[in-house]
Amino acid sequence: MDFVSIRIITDDVARLVEFYEKATEVKAVWSTEDFAELTTPGATLAIAGTRTVPLFAPGSARPADNHSVIIEFLVDDVDRTYWNLTDFITDFVTEPTTMPWGNRSLLFRDPDGNLVNFFTPVTPAAVAKFAR
Question: What is the pLDDT of residues 35-57, one digit of tens each?
Fold first, then answer.
């Protein structure tokens, strides 16, 4: 089994896609006006509108209601990335901070309030774990 993607349900697909395209510098591929994907070498971030929810199960997902998942992206230099993001992100939760498990992390919220972590491994163990 391979973990390949995570999907965010939103009321405003275009707004969220634009935000993630700016933040990640990855261009989205649109399938319909209600569904787009940003694909990185490790996984895909899918963004879907609320009109797609009934295709799975009506009422099974609610937009802007995440309080337990953090969407994480590995970046080359989290400090440089932080400065690049300050032009359009206003809801930083933490500035770049080195975590006990060896990653230097930057936590912010997307326009729907989802937590996003951009991180760079900095200790030898963390670097080895994420070696490409």
Answer: 999 999 999 999 999 999 999 99
Helices (H), the chain: 13-24, 53-56, 78-85, 124-129
Question: What value does the mean pLDDT of the chain take?
Answer: 96
119 DSSP β-pair partners: 74, 105
Name residue, tokens 């349900």: 9
Query: Going from the N-terminus, what domains does the chain have, and what CATH number goes with each?
Result: 1-57 (3.30.720.120), 66-132 (3.10.180.10)
Where on the phi/psi map is residue 59: left (φ > 0), alpha (ψ -120 to 50), or beta? left
24 closest CA partner among 105, 116, 121? 116
